[in-house]
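Technical annex B. To support the medicinal chemistry partners, we prepared a structural model of the target in complex with uracil, based solely on the information shown next.
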Amino acid sequence: MKENVTLIKHPLIQHKLTMLRDKNTSSKDFRELVNELSMLMAFEVTRNLPVEDVEIETPICKTVGKCLSGLDVAIVPIMRAGMGMVEGMLSLIPNAKVGHIGLYRNEETIEPIEYYCKLPSDISKRLVIVTDPMLATGGSLRDAITMLKNRGAVNIKAMILVATETGINEVLKYHPDIEIYTISIDEGLNEKSYIVPGLGDAGDRLFGTK
Ligand code: URA
């Protein structure tokens, strides 16, 4: 395992991932599972957020506790499937700002094409967490990170549900400074660049558009 890749393993996560993979899971349940998995992952992705001492008074006495300090978060979903991961993250980090990056893949060349980018104006000062359920060939995440860097982002992590070695290698080849969090590294890609065993088209399953 590469040092900037974190594979998050937990019985709850593994159980929910299996339900997510099941082709008989409805769109409604799929959305809820993505929500729950994103919330569980957000816990791990934000593990190193800085904290500072804060003096408070309990009903019993004065004490010093820890509070989050300084570093604000921006969640940036890659549209459209990445949007399914935002709500779960916001339930843990409600003050995060949300940017959007629009990329779609050319079905023939598989290359991503940029069509939208709207980010918080102070993106350079934030921990940027890019979300996309699937890291297949790596082209979309590679290009999304380039877009973020071109607009000033310097502290970037990616939160992925299902990844492949190919996708991870492609992203880290161009962006060795970023950290990738995932809950599975699957076997590989089929001839249409879908992840195997994967979970199918995450966007279609989230939004019921198949
Ligand atoms: N995007 C998806 O939604 N699914 C895959 O398997 C690969 C890319």
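Notes passed to the chemistry partners:
The CA atoms of residues 76 and 100 lie 5 Å apart.
The domain at 5-50+63-207 is CATH 3.40.50.2020 (Rossmann fold).
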